[in-house]
Amino acid sequence: MSRYAFAVIAALAGAGLCSAPVAAGTRYGHGPILGTIVAHSHYGNGSVTAPYRKTPVGYQIRLPHGTWVYCRTSCSETLRVETVDIWDAVIDNGEPIGAGTMQAECGALGCLHWSWGLPF
Fold this sequence. Notes:
By secondary structure, the chain is α+β, with helices and mostly antiparallel strands. It has helices at residues 2-27, 75-82, and strands at 33-40, 47-54, 59-62, 68-70, 91-92, 95-96. It has a 4-stranded antiparallel sheet. The chain has a two-stranded antiparallel sheet with strand order 5-6.
């Protein structure tokens, strides 16, 4: 009888351990993965695709090494600045800006570049 009771307890404990990761996403407020977002480099470094999810605080994007970060201007801009263009946008117009920070992201209207094309 004790072998049978031990087997039942072990089976229930194993089932509880297997179901814990499934409930962890909803328990801590992280929803399921909603889809993927593609970010293209502005400096010819290729592109990267990553999943995103919605949390009670805002959207998050998963970086290639597995870390989830909150989206700032947009999820695609955050992904671009944090991955493919992390070091290329460090100096903009001769002034240093933060690597992988919001300062390197484009605004709501996209990346606007102003130049005065004088003919002489």
